[in-house]
Amino acid sequence: MSFTVSIEPSARTFQARKGETLLSAALMAGVALPYGCKDGACGSCKCQLLSGEVTHNAHQTKALSDNEEAQGHILTCCAVAQSDVVLLCRQVLDINLPLVRKMPVRVDQLHLLAPDVMQVFLQLPQNDAFDFIPGQYIDFLLKDGQRRSYSLANAPFPKAPAPHAPSAPMDDNALPPKRFIELHVRHMPGGVFTDQVFGSLKPKDILRIEGPLGGFFLHASTKPIVFLASGTGFAPIKSILESIVSSQDEALKARSLHLYWGVKNLFDLYQNDWVLELQKKLPQLRYTPVLSEPEASSQWRGREGFVHLAVLEDYPSLREHQVYACGAPIVVESAKADFVSKAQLPVEEFFADAFLSQKDKQ
């Protein structure tokens, strides 16, 4: 038995089998419902139930309160259809998500970007396709069955060149170029995976991943964009910015961009120089780093405090903007609440990817 799930206003539809969560069914059908943790902890997949009946698996009240549930909101990662269902989700796009695959990857390079941030380059299998949308993430599949999620920090790979014409035969010895994905891994002492990254992991080690995952990516619009990153929430935004540089979409390249990067101290701006160099390629990009706990010895002369408050100082009205926020849940949640209530940001123009630790999910 299966039920039909319809999404308004995009008019996308898919089938959900009995006992299957709406999110799982959507992803299998390639429908880009927004989501984050997939564990009922972050609230990123929250939608309005317009008609039909669902039951909820276990979830956290901070992700969906009893009052919100009474008002007809659901979490698609936990909701199971009991009838045909119609949902209101303005963030759904008329595109299909890339195919999710499991594959081995080889560690190629490890670079310490900050005392607690490791840049990890993973080499993908040469003959396996791996398409992703800038802003998505992968899961590491650990030996004990656990998973750890990390955003992709690089732009997607260029499409393969067209086949050679008969007048220019292909070199039989030529190999396709190696493909890498980049991650920014913050050390969480005692963490099952991050202790390995900062301890025993070395080049040529083999890991297993699944991806690409996630519904965080740019939505078509002409509105100016505010990017808000906290900590390693910079990684998916870096992927998006890199893709804008290489994009052939003139309308996208013409959009006004403003990146706010909030961290504790100067050392945490681990790719500050990279952003400054990027501005030469993207002259429409403004950049505002914000330190919440600058050390006196650093002689920091830039912005201080909470990063989302810096946005409000600069943009008392966000009515005509889109906001893309990544990082710690408290930063994402505070930004959404204040931007909507104080700066008139339309709630459907706030897109987020909250980085939840295992502790956050418990």
Can you characterise this structure?
Helix content is 19%, strand content 31%. The two termini are 32 Å apart. The strands form four sheets. Strands 11-10-13-8-9-12 form a six-stranded antiparallel β-sheet, with no helix packed on it. Strands 17-16-15-14-18-19 form a six-stranded parallel β-sheet, sandwiched between helices. It has a five-stranded mixed β-sheet with strand order 2-1-7-3-5. It is built from nine helices and 19 strands. Residues 160-175 have low confidence and may be disordered. The protein has helices spanning 22-28, 66-70, 194-197, 234-246, 250-253, 272-281, 307-314, 329-342, 358-361, and strands spanning 2-8, 12-17, 46-51, 54-56, 73-75, 79-81, 85-88, 101-114, 117-123, 137-141, 147-151, 180-186, 206-213, 225-230, 257-263, 285-291, 303-304, 322-327, 350-354. It folds into three domains: 2-88, Ubiquitin-like (UB roll) (Roll), CATH 3.10.20.30; 101-158 and 177-213, Elongation Factor Tu (Ef-tu), domain 3 (Beta Barrel); 225-361, 3-Layer(aba) Sandwich (Rossmann fold), CATH 3.40.50.80. It is of the alpha/beta class and 362 residues long.
